[in-house]
Amino acid sequence: MRVIGTVGLPGSGKSEAAAVARDLDIPVVTMGDVIRQACRDRGLDPATHHGEVAKALREENGPAAIAERSLPIIREALEDGDTVVVDGIRSDVEVERFREAFGEDFELLSIEAPQEVRAERLDLRGRDASVEEGGESLEDRDERELGFGMGEAMAMADYTIANTDSLEAFHDRVRTLLTEGLAAVEGDR
Ligand SMILES: Nc1ncnc2c1ncn2[C@@H]1O[C@H](COP(=O)(O)OP(=O)(O)OP(=O)(O)O)[C@@H](O)[C@H]1O
């Protein structure tokens, strides 16, 4: 059994890593979906209340609340396969919760790229932060995510992939990691 969590700043390549997993028929549990479901449970539109509900969940049930709610979904996904990818980890507290739940079976992958590289890719993706995030710049998004504990989470990673080369090279790295395991990408640690 392998539960592989991904962490990384905006535009680092987390969605691309999740896409590689899906291509391999590895289920991806997205923590954002947990928040969207909580919005619907409260009769709120996820499009406008996502941030507010994420904050409320943490205030009501503690900083690991979203990780906690992801656990049954991850366990259910593990009934169908040996490996699950968890996308959307934001903090060290969440990493600790997953380590507590899955022990050695939990692996943390940090995806890293310099801010200027991420900025360029996000512009190309058409999700320019200045438009999509209500005027918030990538610098501000980075700062906000680091404020949640993203930096501490990244520091806890079992391995790091530097996503500074081509998309194809990144896909290959992630595919190797998912299919062959840590030893195959040991050089990246
Ligand atoms: N190595 C690469 N070369 C070229 N483009 C890339 C590379 N890696 C990712 N991209 C592109 O950069 C953009 C950002 O990547 P992605 O959406 O995976 O980031 P993310 O970490 O999920 O970001 P966010 O947290 O903002 O959702 C995407 O358009 C993706 O296709």
TrEMBL record:
Keywords: ATP-binding, Kinase, Nucleotide-binding, Transferase
One GO MF term attached to the UniProt entry: ATP binding
One Pfam entry name: AAA_17
Matching InterPro entries: NTP_hydrolase-rel, P-loop_NTPase
Positions of transmembrane segments: none
Highest taxon in the source lineage: Archaea
Record: residues binding ATP: G8, L9, P10, G11, S12, G13, K14, S15
Family: Belongs to the UPF0200 family.
PANTHER family per the UniProt record, alphabetical: DEPHOSPHO-COA KINASE (PTHR41930:SF1), UPF0200 PROTEIN MJ1399 (PTHR41930)
UniProt protein name: UPF0200 protein HSEST_0267
Record organism: Halapricum desulfuricans
The organism's taxonomic lineage, starting at the top: Archaea, Methanobacteriati, Methanobacteriota, Stenosarchaea group, Halobacteria
